[in-house]
Amino acid sequence: MLEITDQAFRRFVKMTDLENSCETIVNIFHQYSVRTDDFDTLSFNEFNRLVKEQFPNWLGRVNDPEFITNTFRSVDKNKDKQVDFGEFVNLLIPLIKATHDHLHERHHNH
Ligand SMILES: [Ca+2]
């Protein structure tokens, strides 16, 4: 039977914006998590790099080492000095909510 690769399959399936957004989040996480040690978690250095490169506008204090250290500690809920994907998603939730609130503020000011 003809096997269809994941990539080929995607050419035939039109994913929704939300599906694409979810996949983008997973892909970006992996771009950083595969660099050293455990390929599916972020070490402190990987986390530091992801936050600096991916949130330069939203997290204004990305160049403050204390801010990065404190954020890493608070995101690393199980204290294993690695940020897994679930912990990473918990970091995104308040950012997504803030984006939503910000959009409403702009809407109300019109
Ligand atoms: Ca962890």
From TrEMBL:
Q: What highest taxon heads this organism's lineage?
A: Eukaryota
Biological processes, Gene Ontology terms: endothelial cell migration
List residues of the EF-hand domain.
63-98
GO MF terms, alphabetically ordered: calcium ion binding; calcium-dependent protein binding; transition metal ion binding
Entry-linked SUPFAM superfamilies = EF-hand
Q: Where are the transmembrane segments?
A: none
Keyword annotations for this protein, in alphabetical order, are: Calcium, Metal-binding, Repeat
Pfam families reported in the protein's UniProt record: S_100
One Gene Ontology cellular component term attached to this UniProt record is:
cytoplasm
- The name this protein carries in UniProt is EF-hand domain-containing protein
